[in-house]
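User: quick one, sequence for these C-alpha cells?
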C-alpha cells in the first residue's frame, strides 16, 4: 500500500490510498466449502420466522410456492450460544406456534391473511373484515410467509 502525497500528479483528489497487488503471493489461494451460522444469545419471548417466499431470477423476482411444514413446537436449544442464559439443563428451549401470515396471489398482486391460535385453544382465520374458526389440518396446509412462536 502506497499513500498518495500532495505533490503526486493525480487529478483524483478523493484518492487517499493507491493499492498495488503483489507480483507473487507466497500463500496459495484455496477454495473450500464454508458454513455461515448465526446463534441466539437471549431467546426472545416471541420468535418470528420469516420464510423466503420470493426468488431472484434473471428477469426479477418470482414467488416460491413450495410447501414448507411449519411444526407446532420447535426446540431452538441447538441455536443458542454456549453461554446463553436460556440454555437449560434439560437441553430444550421450546416454542409453540401461535400465528401464521399467508400470502395468496402472485408477485403482481395478492392478499395477506392470518391464522392465530387463541386462548380457547382453537385456530382462527382472519382476513380484512372477517374471521372464523379454522381446523389445525387447514392451518398445516397453508404456505406460510411468516410464523410466530411463543416461548414455553
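Assistant:
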Amino acid at each position: 500500500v502506497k499513500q498518495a502525497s500532495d505533490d503526486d500528479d493525480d487529478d483524483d483528489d478523493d484518492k487517499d490510498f493507491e493499492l498495488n497487488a503483489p507480483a507473487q503471493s507466497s500463500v496459495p489461494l484455496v477454495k473450500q466449502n464454508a458454513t455461515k451460522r448465526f446463534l441466539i444469545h437471549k431467546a426472545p419471548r416471541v420468535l418470528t420466522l420469516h420464510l423466503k417466499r420470493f426468488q431472484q431470477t434473471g428477469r426479477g423476482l418470482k414467488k416460491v410456492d413450495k410447501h414448507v411444514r411449519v411444526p407446532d413446537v420447535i426446540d431452538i436449544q441447538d441455536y443458542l450460544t454456549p453461554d446463553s442464559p436460556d440454555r437449560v439443563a434439560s437441553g430444550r428451549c421450546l416454542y409453540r406456534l401461535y400465528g401464521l401470515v399467508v400470502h395468496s396471489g402472485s408477485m403482481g398482486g395478492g392478499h395477506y391473511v392470518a391464522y392465530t391460535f387463541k386462548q380457547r385453544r382453537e385456530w382462527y382465520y382472519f382476513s380484512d373484515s372477517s374471521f372464523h374458526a379454522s381446523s389445525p389440518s387447514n392451518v398445516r396446509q397453508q404456505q406460510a410467509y411468516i410464523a410466530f412462536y411463543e416461548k414455553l
